[in-house]
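Handoff note, outgoing to incoming analyst
You'll be picking up this chain. Sequence as last confirmed:
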Amino acid sequence: MESGFLVINKDKGIGSTKAVSIAKRILKPKKIGHAGTLDPLAEGVLILAINEATKVIRFVEGAKKQYEFDVFFGAETTTCDAEGEIINQSEKIPTMEEITAIIPEFTGAITQIPPKYSAIKIDGKRAYDLAREGKEFEIKEREIVIESLKLISLSGNVARFLVDCSKGTYVRSLARDIALKLGTYGYVTYLKRTRIGKFSIENAILLSKLESIGYDAKDSLLPVETLLDDILAIALQNDKEFCDLVQGKQVKTNLPNQYDVLTCYQGKIVAISDINNGVIAPKRIIKGEY
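Most recent structure output, in case you need it:
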């Protein structure tokens, strides 16, 4: 099977690991991985990396993301979503004008504290495991970037938003913090990832339909070079540089020092390299048809 990325529209109720297992059973690749874990309650874009694409998957994980989500105002849960137990309630339901007025405070570089029911590690243990054990612990706030936050609609207690954000953003925390800023409580009742970098839900295959498509889903593979639309890369200048690099040799350059850079030749990704002290040094070779 060829190498590339398969854009899956993950169904609600299925975890990311389960989605990968289903695809592995159907496609039978030598290697498979995924970028950007989605909770079982979330749906939408999940990127599967097939074969050689697994070597560059971290470049996908670092890309900007877009989510559509609903916030239910008037209650707070232990998990900041509909799975948790209600721990606080309020009768205040914000108006559209009130919500719109505070949106600028949640755009740009902001800080947030991830939910206690999250995969963050605390002294080597997952936060959600500590929370389930009833342990007391603190999670440090982290800086994220919200490029855009839009209020799409407000119906009764439920507001729908669209957010473009950086890696590491917890939408559940964003929903919680928006509600608190409005003088009430809130939690996520619907979460759908609509984009990771250049990979959009419009080009995604429903995971529930992957079974019926079967092995023919390989025809929907996007080439590894799709990454070049969204990520900085350097180009080799001639055949000799290309041949040297794919044999593990260093190539001279005038470029400044950079690390973990995609290295290309004639539009094809051939390696992940470091640039240090005037040479391009390959770290991982990406096999393919050059």
